[in-house]
Amino acid sequence: MAIVVQKFGGTSVANAEKIRRAAGRAIKAHQQGNQVVVVASARGKQTDQLVADALELNPNPPKREMDMLLSTGEQQTVSLMAMCLEAMGQKATSFTGQQIQMITDNLHGKARIQSIGAEKVKEKLSAGHICIVAGFQGVDESGNITTLGRGGSDTSAVAIAAALGADECEIYTDVDGIYSTDPRKYPNAVKMQQISYDEMLELASLGAGVMHGRAIEFGKKYDVTIHVRSSMNDNTGTLITHEVPQMEGIVVSGATTQKDLAQIALIGLDNTPGNAAGVFAHLAASNVSVNDIIQTEVNSEKATLSFTVARSDLDAAKQAIEEIRKQIDCESVFIREDIAEVSVVGVGMRSHCGVAEKMFNALFAAKVNIDAITTSEIRISCLVDLADAEKALVAVCDAFELDKPAEERTQP
Amino acid sequence: MAIVVQKFGGTSVANAEKIRRAAGRAIKAHQQGNQVVVVASARGKQTDQLVADALELNPNPPKREMDMLLSTGEQQTVSLMAMCLEAMGQKATSFTGQQIQMITDNLHGKARIQSIGAEKVKEKLSAGHICIVAGFQGVDESGNITTLGRGGSDTSAVAIAAALGADECEIYTDVDGIYSTDPRKYPNAVKMQQISYDEMLELASLGAGVMHGRAIEFGKKYDVTIHVRSSMNDNTGTLITHEVPQMEGIVVSGATTQKDLAQIALIGLDNTPGNAAGVFAHLAASNVSVNDIIQTEVNSEKATLSFTVARSDLDAAKQAIEEIRKQIDCESVFIREDIAEVSVVGVGMRSHCGVAEKMFNALFAAKVNIDAITTSEIRISCLVDLADAEKALVAVCDAFELDKPAEERTQP
Cα(B119)–Cα(B214) distance, rounded to whole angstroms? Predict the structure, then answer.
């Protein structure tokens, strides 16, 4: 008997009608002969309301208590959905993260899953129940409630699918799959039929908010296909899966822009071993997460070290840089906030030449100046003027024909 | 170092301002050198809202899932109060019922506490934290969340006080103590300074809704004084405590009326051994809770067996009686719904004569007919016409001078 894991996000369980619809979908899968596990998020705006309640009492609430508070949102959804299923004649049991022994580390607010004891779920599945598990939450080894951070319910769902040995995890959402780029910025973007874990990881790290990176990592590690699809219809969505041969033909699967960045460059840095490491150690100690790093040597003694950070981390980054300048010789620091990054991602890049050239030409033709370039094996990113971000994305999407289904694109 | 347990009900934590006030009270007790544990209920109307959410999806929700849902209300309060205390500069940690290992049986919706593992609370208290524990909730041996039923947070608080070896448990509420009778029905009712566990148990079973019976039983069993007091001021409230010699002088401590009753009489019942037991076994199997029972023999062969039930249980009781009449010979069944019970309670009755006479005379003078009488060692109850209920209560309260402080009343 196959095990199906279905995850419903907050908008898909926002009210009684939507909970009923999600329950109906779970029952349908059960009637088709599957064992069904539902993973649910907090209803609609519940989490926002709880955050507001917290901030009214404490502008900087302790993270442990915040997790204790926020985890109630998912607990409410799963019990309500179990009641709904029972009302529809289906045996059902809900579980908190604690009850399925979703053990995490103790980093409240962004905990990482360490293990899942799925025995109770298996027991109830064997007894014909649909099991509804609260997403987003776990407990640390001392029994404190933890939460997994943004997109955490996706991670819960994929991790549970892995723990139960399910082949597929369905992620129900308010869009009908993953698009080649953000349709709000490029209206002709097409829905992808499938995409590899690696590409999806790159896109997630580039701010394409569809899926949490951790969820994708779990899928890749434990061989769980992730099916992102609409909660409003029965259409097939996008499968996130292992790389298959035909993916190699697709040079560029998706494109993104990131606009919440700042660029920092340390100019005339002493080019001695350990200096760069010192800079990033300092930034890490200040909890600044660093994106693309570029180092260029001016001569054998001096170098320019450039990197990007989230704009929200810029103040912390500046402070860390001031500290490090007391220890490391550096001529000047250049900071730029009106910057954006345009990226293309595709596993086909590995085996095709001319991808970078095509991207640069497209930007040139659109009169977009490129300030910096970084690449990975399956990604090319260009820093551009913030004002040019939208124009640059459209130019790149047009060039790589992201308005057409993958199989209809011109091969390079 | 003394341990103080403070319980705040839903109205005392209904909004941010009230949570701050409750937190301030806990901090004050902490600054006075006590170790402080706060037990809190769900905020204001939260539980009502959750019940409404549930009924929208299932008119008869499974009790396990209802407990799962409702327990989130208290979890929200305790985390918010911990945040509030931290904002006020006080270290604080919140706990769910599961986290303090409040183990109960598995009777969802009216579970009974079996044990409490207070180690984590003790640890945090020793580290200078105020601990905030979610009332009303526990877990069964399999880890399912349970709730303790109406007034359950009081029971949680007294049980935690007992587990920690605290001398006193403070119950903060929106009235300033326990009154000799309901002030809405008898405006001159006086606040009691103290009352014995046994009297309070009788009053609770007579529907005086101030305290849950189980909470009082815990207090009695584990020697915890229960201090019922106002969350709005610092006045001493009412102490529920072991019987002390001066209580004996108080003939009647309190009076009540119960108006949600129905009387059932089985007339001309075969007076053979086991018949009465059969009747009550059948009623118990139908989940009908039976109050006062009176049996009178008509002759050696026939008897009349009369008892009262909650009016909400009347339909179930009627059905059970129809069943039993197939097995037991009984001439007729008399059912009366327009009935009320007036009761007086006091440990002084044990050593004073004339209490019943005084009560009957008062009712006679008020032209209230008495339909039935039952007594216990510390209680006298009269069934009267429902229309006479208020008049009867006033007559009895006047007769026993329940408008005066106990020490000023005329001794019989």
Answer: 23
CA-nearest residue to A101 within chain B is B143
Alpha helix ranges (H) inside A289-388: 314-325, 355-365
Q: How far is CA A288 from each of CA A78, A209, A318, B198, rounded to the nearest angstrom? A: 36, 20, 10, 64
In DSSP notation, A54-81 reads HHHH-SS--HHHHHHHHHHHHHHHHHHH
| CA-closest candidate to residue B10, choices B55, B37, B48, B64 | B48
The CA distance from A264 to B155, in Å, is 60
**Backbone φ/ψ region at B310: left (φ over 0), alpha (ψ -120 to 50), beta:** beta
| Record: contact B83-A75, CB cut-off 8 A | no
Could you give phi then psi for residue B100, rounded to 5 degrees? Answer: -95, 10
Q: B2-37: buried (b, 16+ CB within 10 Å) or exposed (e) per residue?
A: ebbbbbbbbebbbebebbbbbbebbbebbeeebbbb
Instruction: Describe the crossing of helices B213-222 and B152-164 by its angle, rounded to 10 degrees.
Output: 10
- Separation of alpha carbons A362 and A351, rounded Å: 21
Strands of the sheet with B137-139, listed across from one edge: B113-116, B102-104, B137-139, B145-147
User: What's the pLDDT tens digit per position in A297-330?
Assistant: 777 788 888 899 989 889 999 999 988 888 888 8
A51 touches chain B (CB under 8 A): no
Catalogue all structural domains in chain B, each as residue range(s) with its CATH number.
3-174 (3.40.1160.10)
Query: How many beta-carbon pairs under 8 angstroms link A with B?
Result: 115
Shortest CB distance from A58 goes to which of B54, B65, B83? B83
Q: Which residues of A touch B50 (CB under 8 A)?
A: 76
Q: Give the pLDDT confidence of B8-59 residue by residue, as tens digits.
A: 999 999 999 999 999 999 999 999 999 999 999 999 899 999 999 999 999 9
- Name, in order, each residue with C-beta under 8 angstroms of A74's C-beta and a sequence gap of 6 or more: A40, A41, A42, A96, A97, A134, A135, A136, A137, A153
Which residues share a beta bridge with B290?
A: B309
- If you write DSSP's letter for every residue of A237-292 in order, what string do you get? -EEEES--GGGGG-S--EEEEEEEEEEEEEEEEE--TTHHHHHHHHHHHTTPPEEE
Nearest-Cα residue of chain A relative to residue B70: A76
For testing the chain B interface, which of A19, A75, A80 should be mutated: the one with the most B CBs within 10 Å? A80
B16 has a chain A CB within 8 A of its CB: yes
Q: How confident is the model at residue A104 (pLDDT cuts 50, 70, 90)?
A: very high
| Residue of B91, B96, B156, B98 lying closest to B124 (CA atoms) | B91
How many other CB atoms sit within 10 Å of the CB of residue B293?
A: 13
For tokens 């799963």, the residue is: A78
Residue B11 phi/psi, 5° resolution? Answer: -70, -25
**Token pair for residue A205?**
């790290």
Give backbone dihedrals phi and psi of A298, rounded to 5 degrees, phi first: -85, -50
* Secondary structure of residue A186 in the 3-state scheme: coil
